Amino acid sequence: MPLTVLTATSRVTVFPLEGLTVAYTTQSSDERGLGDIGLVTVVGKEGREGDQDDGDALWQLARGLGGRTNGGDQARWIITQASRARTVRAYTDLPCVKWTAHVNRRFELDALFANHDILMTGRIALMRL
Fold first, then answer.
1. Residue 49 pLDDT more than 80?
2. In CA terms, which of 37, 44, 64, 103 is 20 to 30 Å from 71?
3. Partners of 99 in the beta sheet?
4. 3-state class of 49 per DSSP?
5. Residue 35 region, left (φ>0) first, then alpha (ψ -120 to 50), else beta?
6. Contact 33, 39 (CB under 8 A)
7. Prediction pTM value
8. Which of 60, 106, 114, 111 is nearest to 83 (CA)?
């Protein structure tokens, strides 16, 4: 998938995952606002020009730690980590933050999982309002 840039203001959950700082938010595919697209991204470090993790590290973790070999299982593992972080609220929950995400992978799940049928991964920059 070619790089897609998204900008929005929404709730974002930020959590650590094996040395990464990960951000999770949702988007909707239509006007109903169902949040059916899970956006799980690696947070870019401010002031670090070379910080170009494009989200592939999440898929590598799904293979390595999660032991998942096919794309659907890897996507579900990534969504599980994100939804778990949001559910337990043990990490940073930003109720209204502006962000810009550089999405490099879009994966359509074969069935609804954790209210998502699409997972997008990439890199995100968070800006405080």
1. no
2. 44
3. 8, 126
4. coil
5. left
6. no
7. 0.88
8. 114
